[in-house]
Design a protein that fits this description.
Largest sheet: 6 strands, mixed
Order of helices and strands: EEEEEEEEEE
Distance between the termini: 40 Å
Mean pLDDT: 95
Number of helices: 0
Number of strands: 10
Shape: globular
Strand order of the largest sheet: 2-10-9-4-5-6
Low-confidence stretches: none
Structural class: mainly beta
């Protein structure tokens, strides 16, 4: 079964940093476009960032541009989301998704439906 697994969340103070990781089970992320999404309580899921599998181009939502960075670690077959200068409004469950077709995932739309189901996500809480 093809699955993605998110990790790296936690509790951090405003202005702090976290690095989220997206790993795959049953396939290799290296050949897929990968997107990050987040969902805060009472809000719909929103696209945060993505990285293409064709030209490694990246996309960022305006709300995170300049603070978040998406990248690949091909040696470890992971995709990271480095989050700096975190704000309370970044608090959410963060999910990753993979798609062989970059144009279906980048930019990441709020109505995106992944193959199978969403993973469990990783909780990010920004609070003092």
């Amino acid at each position: 079964q093809l699955q993605v697994v998110e990790s790296g969340g936690g509790l951090v103070q405003p202005g702090g940093s976290l690095r989220l990781s997206c790993a795959a089970s049953g396939f290799t992320l290296d050949y897929y476009a990968v997107g990050w999404f987040r969902q805060a309580p009472g809000k719909e899921r929103e696209g945060v960032s993505c990285i293409s599998n064709s030209d490694e181009s990246t996309y960022y939502a305006d709300s995170v541009k300049g603070r978040f960075t998406i990248s690949r670690d091909s040696a470890k077959h992971l995709v990271y989301l480095q989050m700096n200068s975190l704000k309370p409004e970044d608090t959410a469950v963060y999910y990753c998704a993979a798609n062989m077709y970059a144009d279906r995932l980048c930019p990441p739309r709020s109505d995106y439906v992944p193959f199978g189901s969403w993973g469990q996500g990783t909780q990010v809480t920004v609070s003092s």
